[in-house]
Protein: DNA ligase-associated DEXH box helicase
Organism: Halopseudomonas formosensis
Amino acid sequence: MHDPIIIPTDEGLFCPAGNFHIDPWRPVPTAVITHAHADHARSGSAHYLAHHLSLPIMRHRLGEHRFTGLDYGEQRRFGAITLSMHPAGHVLGSAQVRLAHDDGRVWVVTGDYKRDPDPTCAPFEVIPCDTLITEATFALPCYRWPPVERVGEQIWQWWAAHPDRPCILFTYALGKAQRVLAVLTAHADRPVLVHGAMVAMTEIYRQAGVQMLPRATCIRWARAADLECLARIRAQPQSPRYSAIRKASPLPSCLPK
């Protein structure tokens, strides 16, 4: 009986033969990161290894650390383990981690992944292996997503049908927001006003060559109002709070008064 290549520890998934962790929960000497979402990439480790397209996002979110970037398919040796990363199709730079032991066994840790097409990242790749450790966020058979092209068409129809009011769409700041902006390029070339939390992530995607709708310049308005307040102002201009909110937070110059 062989020892397992991956074991669970208090810090997360650990590879004893290579002496590294994958997506650790706590600071460790060497952290192999599948992608840059905050539940997988946490601050404090001494050395991070990830796909090179994840590194700008990790630097923005985690600050300066010791980072090493790999290409898909590039191999690195860690003790008795040959490690390589392969597309997961989840977000920019997302990767499955392939661990090939010198005794011939191959294990794969998927991280988050999806098999649907996504114009913002490399498509999911099937990696033959002996043992697969998979994420299962939406694994139940009740989850059946419509094609992304259909969703993009629905968003565009809703947006185009309301030219005189703000259309506000809530998305994750990393991954979903950029996917929406990319899918909508098939229907429009209008600028989109994005929340400040999405600005840096969107520009990192753009610098990586991802084609998306242009982003309107965000304004510096007071913390007293957010996009919800903006929607209320535009929809109910005669409300009692209208004057106070407008005084505290002027509307962006890119929007009609």
